[in-house]
Every structure is written in C-alpha cells, then in structure tokens.
Design brief:
Phosphorylase Kinase, domain 1, 2 domains
C-alpha cells in the first residue's frame, strides 16, 4: 500500500506499508524528515548571493568539510562530496562555471528544482553564486578558479553513488547472464525511471537530456534521475509545443523534433525508449552501440529482439514513434510496465 503527503501543493516522498495506517505513518515520517532537512540547511546556506565578497571556499568550509571530487570534468562542471559538520550529513555540491552573469531569474529556475520531491529523482536543496571558488588549480579543470570566469554556480543536492546507469549497462554487457535475469533487472530499473519521468512531467517540466550517464543510484540503491542542467518548463497547452533553444540534449538520445527546436515533454519518452533498449540488449563494443542505437532510433531492432522480448519490443516501438503525439504519456507507460511485471512474475506482483 502506498500513501503520499501533500502540503501546500508540494508532494513529499511516498510511504509504503502493509496496512493503510502503516503507509500513512511512513509517509508522514518522510514528509517530516524532508521538511526538517530543508529547514536546517536553509538556515545555514543562502540561496542567493546578496553581493557578498565571500569566497566559495569560505562559504563551504565555515560549516562543511569538502571530502573529495566525485566526478570528472565536463561541460556541466564538477561534483564534490561535502559533509555538513553541524548537521552531520553528506551532500553533493555541483560547481558549474558560467560564462555570463547569473540573473535572479536563472537562480529562481535552479531553485525551482528543490520542489521536485520523488524517490526516483535526485533531490536538489539549494543554490548560490560566487565570483571565486574552491577548485583544483589545473588547466584541465572546466571550473578552475585560475581561469577567468564571471561566476561559479553552486548547486547543493542529494549525495548518490558514483556509478551511473551507463556503468551498470557496461558491466552487464561484459557478464554472461540468463536473458530472464537481465530482463527482470532491466524492468525493475525502467519502472523507476518512468516513475521519475511521470513526476517531472506532472510538474510541467521536461528533462531534455535523459541518458544513462544522467541516471544515478541512491545510497539505498534506488534509481535516481539527475543532471537537470538542461531542464525546462513544459508548455501548458499540450496542442502547441514551444519553440526552444537548440543547445539541448545529447544527439544520440535526442528525439527527431529536438533538432527542429519545437517540441514538448514527449522528447523524454523517446530518450527513455532508447535507454530501455540499452538496458535489455547486450552490446559488445562502442562501435556496435552507436550503430545499433542509430537503427533503434528508426525502430529497426536486431532480428532476435522481437523474438526474445516481444512485449518490450511493442512498448519500445510506441516510445520511438517519429510523431510525438503517437508516443504514450509517461503515466500510460508506467501502467504498461506494471502490466508487464505482472505477466513476467505474477506471484511477486500479487504479493
């Protein structure tokens, strides 16, 4: 039994239990913990920089100790593991170098991510900007404090494991597993991804860059959608997709309409279709992966795929339709995957 607490239109993580009372109690505890965590952090870290000349290192180290860099460099910055000494909690702090001055609107948009409260979405807590920062002094660092940069954007968020779904897929591709085992594992992961996507769309947002590298695993092993660097608001009018910036997404996972800059939330469904295919199908080399995924984008699957995974093949075809309106909503996909789970393992789903 599942139960969810909603306070002032803000949903909190759902509670589970064998009885309605137990589920309600667990949901209330989840909401209380989230409220306390946010309140404690907000009392110590400002969301916006009010023109202070403090360095980033002082902002972080006054009440925190920076443990280590837990990600490589890249276009969207580095991620550091931080222990908040007063709260005795560990967080991740993402540091992004920005070329232009960050406006209040930009900060509000990043701050808006803090309303996303879902088991399968990386939790965002706070953000702030600084003119200088605690970074390694290296020309290879994309966020190096030695390079001239107007500002650094700091995003404090939930700490996840260092492995991504991309690592999981590569690991499974090197192992010899019964098809049934990988099928079950992939379905379990896919259900969590689509649950997160459904919630994102419910909040009128579009991720725009879903891919294995942006999907993480939480400390409890739960699948977490992260890296909302490209997130944008969805159009209120479902019939008229908006024109958007062309600097979005990763080409291999981008829906066809994303290249035309007029699209809506259905781009996330297309990307999820490719991710689900990668979860299920063993691919040996990087060259083969690029080739097979290019074919899958056009609904061309390996000959054995529909023979061994007929239900998944049908679901995938619907997600990879070229016409966005023909792709299912995340809520419909969630129901389809639940139905598939019941078909594959009826005893477990009944319990």
């Amino acid at each position: 039994i599942h139960y969810k607490v909603v306070i002032e239109d803000k949903e909190y993580p759902e509670g589970k239990g064998n009885t309605i009372k137990q589920a309600q109690q667990n949901a209330a505890q989840q909401a209380w913990s989230a409220l306390q965590e946010q309140s404690d952090w907000d009392s110590k870290v400002a969301v916006e920089n009010k023109g202070r000349a403090d360095s980033v290192s002082s902002t972080l180290t006054k009440s925190s100790s920076i443990a280590k860099n837990i990600s490589g460099g890249g276009a969207f910055g580095r991620v550091y593991k931080v222990r908040e000494i007063l709260l005795n909690k560990k967080f991740a702090v993402k540091i992004v170098r920005v070329k232009k001055k960050i406006s209040r609107k930009d900060l509000r948009e990043v701050k808006a991510l803090s309303v996303l409260l879902h088991t399968n979405i990386v939790r965002y807590y706070s953000c702030w900007t600084e003119d200088t920062g605690y970074m390694q002094s290296s020309s290879a660092d994309s966020c190096s404090s030695q390079e001239s940069s107007p500002q650094l954007l700091y995003i404090q968020m939930e700490l996840c494991g260092s492995k991504t779904l991309g690592h999981w897929i590569k690991e499974r591709n090197t192992r010899t597993l019964p098809d049934s085992s990988r099928r079950q594992e992939s379905l379990t992961i896919a259900k969590q991804i689509v649950s997160g996507v459904e919630y994102i769309h419910f909040k009128k947002l579009i991720h725009r860059d879903l891919k294995p590298a942006n999907i993480l695993f939480g400390q409890d092993g739960a699948v977490k959608i992260g890296d909302f660097g490209l997130v944008t608001a969805d159009d209120e009018d479902d019939e008229n997709p908006r024109e958007r910036t062309n600097e979005t997404g990763t080409m291999l996972y981008m829906a066809p309409e994303q290249f035309e800059n007029i699209y809506d939330r259905k781009v996330d469904i297309f990307a999820f279709g490719l991710i689900y295919f990668e979860l299920l199908w063993k691919i040996s080399t990087g060259h083969e992966r690029a080739e097979v995924l290019r074919d899958a984008r056009n609904q061309k699957f390996p000959r054995e795929f529909p023979l061994t995974l007929p239900q998944e093949e049908q679901i995938m075809r619907s997600m990879l339709c070229k016409e966005p309106k023909q792709r299912p909503e995340a809520s419909a996909l969630n129901a389809e995957l639940e139905k598939l789970a019941h078909t594959l393992n009826p005893e477990k789903t009944e319990n």
